Amino acid sequence: MAHMVFCVRNKREMEGLDEPPFDSEFGQKIYKNVSKAAWDEWVNRQKMLLNEYRLQPWTPQAQQFLVEQMEEFFFGSGSALPTEYVPPSH
């Protein structure tokens, strides 16, 4: 049976992640409150942030920035896009 959560991002009951994304209290919070669909949204946002800010994800500063953005994305006001971001045209 799928792990179901009330998704904080989509405001409805949805299928949750298969396991916590991190081995921490914050990872457990995500596991209990974030759907797979919302996590996929975050992965795309994270890629955009890495590219727009030219972050090196192995550095502690980039990791801390991404955790702060993730917290805001799921549990805050949604995290703002970079001011110079231009969405790709298809």
Q: Any overview of this molecule?
A:
The chain has helices spanning 25-33, 36-52, 60-75, and strands at residues 4-7, 12-15. By secondary structure, the chain is mainly α. The chain has a single domain (4-75), classed as YggX-like, CATH 1.10.3880.10. The protein has a two-stranded antiparallel ribbon. A hairpin with a 4-residue loop joins strand 1 (4-7) and strand 2. Helix 2 packs across helix 3. The N and C termini lie far apart (37 Å). The model has no long low-confidence stretch (mean pLDDT 90).
Quick overview of this protein structure:
This protein is mainly alpha-helical and 90 residues long. It has three helices and two strands. The protein has one domain: YggX-like.
Sequence-ordered SSE layout with sheet pairings:
Layout: E1 4-7, E2 12-15, H1 25-33, H2 36-52, H3 60-75
Antiparallel strand pairs: 1-2
Helix pairs in contact: 2-3
Q: What's the order of the H and E elements? A: EEHHH
**Largest sheet: spatial strand order:** 1-2
Could you give me the name of the CATH homologous superfamily? Fe(II) trafficking protein YggX
Helix content: 40-55%
Report how far the terminal alpha carbons are from each other.
37 Å
CATH overall fold name: YggX-like
* Average residue pLDDT: 90
What percent strand?
Answer: 5-15%
> Main sheet, how many strands, which sense, barrel?
2 strands, antiparallel
**What class would the helix/strand composition place it in?**
mainly alpha
| Overall shape | globular
- The residue ranges in which pLDDT falls below 50 over 5 or more consecutive positions are none
Instruction: Please count the helical segments.
Output: 3
**CATH class (first level) name:** Mainly Alpha
- In total, the number of domains comes to 1
> What Rg is obtained from the alpha carbons, in whole angstroms?
14 Å
How many individual β-strands?
2
Based on the coordinates given, report the CATH architecture. Answer: Orthogonal Bundle
